[in-house]
Each structure stands twice: as structure tokens, then as C-alpha cells.
Amino acid sequence: MAELLRVENLRAGYGEAVVLNDISLTLGEGETLALLGRNGTGKTTLIDTLAGATRQHGGEIFLGGLPLHTLPSHERAAAGIGWVPQERNIFKSLTVHENLTAVARPARASRAWTPERVYEMFPRLAERQTNLGTQLSGGEQQMLAVGRALVLNPRLLLLDEPLEGLAPIIVEELLRAIARITREEGLSAIIVEQHPQAILRISHRAVVLDHGNVVHASDADALRQNPELLDSLLGVARKL
């Protein structure tokens, strides 16, 4: 499997505060990585750093050989990063369709992500194309945030707690969509989530952070089937 992402000795944080300490990891083309850890361990900081939204104090980030760490955030999107932050960051004053078309980027692949393909993935959004962002439920806003990242036609999708605060029926719908995007469509992804069992079952690999350091890296299914280890790493092996 060809390597897509390489992170080497990454140190980053906010202002002068360093949150991540010498993080190193790799991700292959078509792989999904579950990024786990207790609250405040650096998971969101790592996602934000890959997207260019923190201050990097050291180390290097390569995406398909491109030195991502030298690029500002807007150029990282053009380089192949699709980012869904916790805040979702949809344009609430625009309609669903305008949200998608405003950021869509062309791609040469025959199965490029277009607004129409997003509507196929999320029929709820198709029904609400003319609704403003403020008129959407939390689950619909999350679907739109994922759709906005997809129409960038990224090489790597970053999802920061995509299931947070959503009703169980919406959680299952989003999990099926994420599994299709990654497992069937082959898009590489890094997913931060507080429901480890839910994400581990659709991921290839798992990394656990603690105090800004990688304390565990393994096959995702192996970790999912070892609840005692999962409990020791996360404090509680929550199930979904």
C-alpha cells in the first residue's frame, strides 16, 4: 500500500503552548485511522495542525510527498486536505446547495465528488437544498459539513468528532456514510471520536494519544476486540 501521509517528530500547539510532543505516524492510501484518547490529550490539536490551524513548533508533515508543513491552511485544502472541524464551519447564511457549490473543486477522477453525489450519499440534504444552514438540524449540519469537505475532492479526510451530540438514528446514518466513503470509495481518513467501538469497526488502524504523545498504535480490529486494553488506554471502553 502506497504511503499517503507521513508525520515526523511533530511539535505543535496554540501560541507558545506546545500540546503535541514529537508525534510520528504514517497513513497509507485508502486507509482509515481512528485517533483516540481521553479529553485534552491532543487529538483535536493534531487534526487542526494537519489542516494548518495551529502553530507548528517543529517536525514535518508530508502528503503524497508534498511538504504540507510549509503551506498555509487554504493551500492545504488545494493540496488535498478535506477538514470537518468540531464546529462544522458551514455557511449558515447560505442554502445547502450554495454551501456545496461555493467550495466545490473539480477532479479528474471518473467518480469525483460533486453536489449531486453528496445528495446521493445524504438524501436528507437533497430534500433541503434550498434551506439555509440555520434551518438545519444538528445532524443535517454535520452531513453538510462532511459534504462540503467531500466536494473539495480531497486525498485525506479529517473528521473531528463527527458523531458528537447527534441522535442515535443520525449517528448510524453517518457511520454508514463514513464507512462507504472510506471502505468502498477508498478515501483515506483520520477520525477523532469519543465512541471508540463505533469508529474502530470501520477503521483499519488505531492510534491513541496521551499528553500529546502516541502511547499506542495497532490494527483497529485488534484493539476493538481487546476491551481491557482499550479501557486501560481510554479510561472507559465506551460502546455504541
Description of the molecule:
It is a single chain. The protein is α/β, with parallel strands linked by helices. It has a single domain, classed as Rossmann fold. Helices cover 35% and strands 28% of the residues. The protein is built from 10 helices and 10 strands. The strands form 2 sheets. The chain has a 6-stranded mixed beta sheet with strand order 6-7-8-3-9-10, sandwiched between helices. Strands 2-1-4-5 form a 4-stranded antiparallel beta sheet, with helices on one face. Strand 7 (156-160), helix 7 and strand 8 form a beta-alpha-beta unit. Helix 3 (96-103) runs parallel beside helix 6. The longest helix is centred in the C-terminal third of the chain and has 17 residues, at 168-184. It starts with a strand and ends in a 6-residue tail after the last helix. Mean pLDDT is 93; it is low at 236-240.
